[in-house]
Amino acid sequence: xxxxxxxxxxxxxxxxxxxxxxxxxxxxxxxxxxxxxxxxxxxxxxxxxxxxxxxxxxxxxxxxxxxxxxxxxxxxxxxxxxxxxxxxxxxxxxxxxxxxxxxxxxxxxxxxxxxxxxxxxxxxxxxxxxxxxxxxxxxxxxxxxxxxxxxxxxxxxxxxxxxxxxxxxxxxxxxxxxxxxxxxxxxxxxxxxxxxxxxxxxxxxxxxxxxxxxxxxxxxxxxxxxxxxxxxxxxxx
Length: 237
Fold this sequence. Notes:
Organism: Hyaloscypha variabilis (strain UAMH 11265 / GT02V1 / F) (Meliniomyces variabilis)
Order of helices and strands: EEEHHEHHHHHHH
InterPro entries: SKP1/BTB/POZ_sf
Strand order of the largest sheet: 1-3-2-4
Strand content: 5-15%
Radius of gyration: 26 Å
Distance between the termini: 89 Å
Largest sheet: 4 strands, mixed
Protein name: BTB domain-containing protein
């Protein structure tokens, strides 16, 4: 099956396996703006014969999600505990993030895919935590996943569960005491996102504590008495 997005200066992209293969014809300019990988590849094609881009490790739906975003970019969403889960992001946010990583996409797509994952991860029937630990060894998704696994493994208590055996589950003794979804998205792109118990301003509770601390009246230093104080006052300026 072939889907045509642009006819002029386009490239063929094959997505999926033999049983579920889909061919996309996509405008090169659109891909250059979104993907460092495509930008470098198209530059090399000035010297070499053009070949299709093959993405056989992803489902066509994942690439469709990516195409929809680069055709009409949207800002990352803010976590809302009252928002209901939504497809296609409920089932595909982690894989979309991995596709963006493979294509070396902009931070904007990375943050959008991560924000969708943060919003929907609690509703995933079969969590992608093992996949993330295997495929997303570094980056924002890996950091959030490690915190989520450690936090939930601790909450689950003794006995085997879906987090048992994962690397991050071994960090339960230092796991965050609060829901990692509440942290600002920038937290997972900062050095503080590497640590299990951060005390940074990406945490809304820490921000509130700092604000309350700033409101407290500062203690008045005790008055100075004694001969040394008098001599200091008498000393010419």
